[in-house]
Amino acid sequence: MSDKLRNQVYPLVFRREDYIPGTGFISLIRSQGRLLLVQEPEGFWVYGVAPCAISACGTTRAEALLRFQQTYVAIMCDYARAARNGDEFEVEVRKFFYQPADEDSDAWEAARQQVRDGSRALEGMKTANAADYPPSIQVDSIRRPETEARPANGEFYALADAA
User: Fold this and answer.
1) Pairwise CA distance, residues 87 & 93, whole Å
2) Residues 120, 37: contact at Cβ < 8 Å?
3) What is the mean pLDDT of residues 22-45?
4) Which of 45, 85, 113, 161 has the highest CB neighbour number within 10 Å of its CB?
5) Is 140 a member of any domain?
6) Does 133 fall in a domain?
């Protein structure tokens, strides 16, 4: 077990939907997964368990979760920019999402057991059955005629024709 359990560690589940633009396609990503929220003296850290390889910090719990969300979307956008099409994007996103995170998975399960035992609670956070949120990702891509990727915030600028 890692040093994470020496601090206040909370097992979280999440579910989200994101529209991610790519060159010639746009994808709707539906994902749900597991996170470790760790309260340390200087603030909070969020570590991805599924997906792993993502972390973010903040001085408050809300800030750390927001930064995690922003990082997650930025990574998806990076994969979309690098992909030649929606199928390639899906393959790469699935590889990323399902990378094993053994140490963090063990810490997540240990923290989950503490919640079950009643020895760990997080004020202001509802409790959910983890079985209802198994780690998963679904990518639905559609082609679009534009040849350049649109920014993630949905902004798009083009020169209007003279009609």
Assistant:
1) 10
2) no
3) 93
4) 45
5) no
6) no
